[in-house]
Design brief:
Jelly Rolls; Leucine-rich repeat, LRR (right-handed beta-alpha superhelix); 3 domains; Malectin-like_Carb-bd_dom; membrane; receptor
Amino acid sequence: MTSSVIFLCLVIIPILAHSGLSSQPPGYLIDCGGSTNVTLGSLTYVPDSGFINVGKSIPISAPNLLPILTTVRYFPNVSARKSCFSIPVIRGGKYLVRTIYYYGRYDGGTHPPVFDQIVDGTKWSIVNTTRDFASGLSSYYEVVAAAMGNSLSVCLARNVHTGNSHPFISALEVEKLDDSVYNPTNFEKNVLVTIARNTFGADGDIISFPDDNFNRMWQPFKDQNPVVTSQSNITSSDFWNLPPAKAFNSGITTSKGKKLEIQWPAVTLPATNYYIALYFQENRSPSPDSWRVFDVAINGQTYFSKLNATTKGVTVYAPEWPLSGRTHITLTPAEGMPVGPVINAGEVFQILPVGGRTLPRDVIAMESLAKSFKNPPPDWSGDPCLPRENSWTGVTCSHNQFSRVISVVLTNAGISGSLPPDIANLTSLAHLWLGGNKLTGKIPDLSGMNALETLHLENNELEGSIPPSVGKLPKLQEIVALVDHLPESA
C-alpha cells in the first residue's frame, strides 16, 4: 500500500439545506447527434447543435433503445487532435460530467472504437465500451470537476488504440453540484473520477433523478450478507454530499457479534488515492435503543473507530485514502452490541490531478481568435494547450506553472476572417504565421506582445498599414506582410 496522509471526517449534523427538487437537474442534458428534444422518463434532453460545431450525426437502428441512444455524434476527421463540446457554466462551480455511449455498429463495424475523453485540459479516462456492447448494454463514465472559466469543455480524442475507427458519443450530461458536495477535495488541483456509487442490499432500479436532485446514479449492490430494510427516513440535507433518502432504504448486515465483511467496489483498483464516502443508518424503528456502534476498516486499516449509527443516519468520508487492487471493508461490532453492524451506501472516486492549467488570458484570446476565423481548424475548441498531445492544430505552448501560447503557425491553411484586438493579449507569443490565407480587415494594435519575434501575414487580403506599435516590439526580428505601409521603425 502506498504511503499517504489520511484525513477522516464524520458528519452527523445538518450542513446545508437544499432548495428542493425541480423538474430537471441543474445543468444540461444533451442528446448527441439528435435534432429534436427527446424525453427519458421525466427528463428532457436537447439536441447538441448549440454545444458543438464539428462531427457528424447518424441514427442507430436497434430494437428497444432508450431515446438518447438512438443517435450518435461521431468524429471522422483523423487530423483533429480533439473534438470538443463547450458547455456554458458558472466560473468556480462544481460539475458532474457524465458521458454515455452506445455503439450500435453505427459505422458498420463489429467492435466499438477505443479513445480518450478530456474535461477542460485533463485527460480523465479511456473509453472502451467493448464488453458492455457485447452484452447489449450502454456505457457511462463520470467525472466531477470545477469550472475554471465561463465554459467547460468535454472532448473526445483519438489514441493509439482507435485505429481506423472514429470516436463517438450518444449523450452528455453536465449537472451543477451544490457547494457542499465532495467539498474536502481541492478542485483547483484535482478532479474526481467515479469508480462506484452503490446502495447496499438493493436489487431494484437505479436511484437517480428526481430522488437524487443532481441525477447521480446509485446502482444496487448485493452480496451474500443478510439484507435489512429501514424503518425510518433520513433527511438528505443532514449530509455534506446530499445523498438521496432512498439510498438508505436498504442495507446489508450480519448477526450479533460477527464482523461484517464486504468486498467493494467490485473492480480492481490501480494504486493511487481515492475519495471514499460511506453511509450508515440504524434500520430499526426509532427508540432509545435504536443505535449500534462498530469500527470500520478498509483493507485492514482503521477507517473510523466507534462509529455510532442511529436512525438519523451518519456518513464517514476520507478525502484522500490509498487503495490498490481488491478492496475489503470490515465492520467490527463493539463489545456487547445486541445487533451486528450495518451499511447502506457508498461512493468511491479516484483522485486525479488536473493536467495543468492554461493562463486564462491566453485561453480567452485564443477563443476570440477562433471566433474571428470563419473556418478555423476543426480541433480549435476546448483548451488550446492541454493536454499537450491534444493542443490545437498549429498551436505550440510552453508548460510551466501555467501553459502559455508561444506560436501560432497556420500558413496556407485556407482560413478566412479577421484578426481580433484580443490577439494582443498573447503576451508570450513569439511566432505568428498566418500567411497565404484569406484574412481581411485591418491588423490590430499588437502593443504588449513583447515576446513576438516573427510576424508573417503575407498573401492575405488585409487592409491599411501595420500599426506603428509593431515597430516598437523589443524582440521582433522579422516581418513579412503585404500591406500599404510598414511601421516606420520596422
